[in-house]
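quick one: heme C bound model?
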Amino acid sequence: MITTNAYSEKSAEDAIKTRKALFSKNYSTAKKVQSLSSNGEFDKAKELMLEMSKNYLNLLELFPDNSKEGFKTQSLPIIWDDKENFNLLMQKSSDDMIKLTSVIETTDNINGSIKMLMWSNCKTCHSKYRKPH
Ligand code: HEC
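yep, here:
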């Protein structure tokens, strides 16, 4: 029993720390996507969009039941009551980054497209599933 508890404690810590690191990474990557796109550096921007898309898919696995609290998590318990919609929003955020790669070079409103397909998903999710910070 002791080893089992120690193990799940460890995996909760891993999950929380790993998801925090991935969200932070996505934040800095998102800022680069914004500036590269504004400068017309679309190839680099698209690479980073795909990286963010993959990170979102990895995040789907990082909210196990034992990681609702502790280790300074800012996740709200509603995530686990509403896991299906939370996961759908994570999946949509990933899909939208792929969509962004296909419109970024042709859109006549770069900032608008980035706002709609990238930043708005952050906001939608945080307003419901993340503690105010
Ligand atoms: C589907 C939901 C969802 C989406 C989409 C999402 N986030 Fe988050 N984000 C969260 C949750 C939940 C947390 C709290 C994680 C924790 O502390 O357990 C979080 C935490 C963070 C953190 C704090 C990480 C830390 O070190 O504590 C940052 C920064 C962040 N998000 C940025 C972003 C940005 C930028 C975007 C969009 C590009 C984004 N997030 C999209 C749900 C989301």
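Residues 2 and 83 are 29 Å apart (CA to CA).
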